[in-house]
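From the pipeline queue, job 12 of 40. The input is one protein chain; the requested action is below.

Action: predict structure.
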Amino acid sequence: MKYKLLILLSLLILSCSENTNPIINEDNENFELINSALNFMGSGNSLDIVTWNIEYFPKHEMTSEYVKESIDALNVDIIALQEITSSEELNYLKGLLTGNWEAYRSGNGDWGELAYLINTDNISSYSNPYTILNGFSYDFAWREPYLLEFVYNNENFYLINVHLKCCDGSEERRRNSNEAIHNYIISSLNNENVIVVGDFNDLLIDDNNVFEIFINNSENFQFTDYDIASGESAFWSFPSWPSHLDHILITNELFNSVIETETVLIDNSLDEFFSEYEEYISDHRPVGISLYIAP
């Protein structure tokens, strides 16, 4: 009898050790999936914006819980999202977040759309976002840029969220998309505070560069994450390749306002690091920017 009990106990221990799912304590509201402070966090003294491709959101039944804890830890003002496949789940996430937030999605299909989460405790004056450059739908892979107008410290801002066509063989479409964005800003938003963020699906440091229209116009445009793109791969936004595909572009009105731009290493704050991050959240890391805008 004792021998049988020992066998049963051994099997129970083995079965528990093979379970790699995160342990959720339903009775402890303070249980944290994020186990340490993030390397990028907003403050009450800066305009803090994050771009985040949350792969096929939600890719797992636990995705919203992971993202909720990440956003609470980030403490930012606006999050521009890509690959949001469910309006229902986006609204569910909004309801989970600490504080007051609004959510907007560029369409109501069941494929990956552009979206915004706006912290209305910090951003109270804004217009409903809208798509632009609809005549370039093919080049943008039917994910036309999603523009949000808002006011921060009595300054008007124009935030453009993009998700360009992926993969080899689509360089010309990405080049055309960048040219369309460039020309739109020059013609329609000249002398305005413009920020373009998103998954650009290409490298800033290529020789045959799809971003040359911006890079060659450095008096008016700047990729604030260029040092990340040309630096160590440990800080790139797409670790599994690895490559740096998620960028932040600003116009010259904001050149002197940049405090920092960072890839947010949420995976470093998880127990199982990137393997856990990729399983439950995304294959892309967020990229964030902090700007000082004088009151």
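Job complete. Residues 47-291 form a domain with the Deoxyribonuclease I; Chain A fold (CATH 3.60.10.10).
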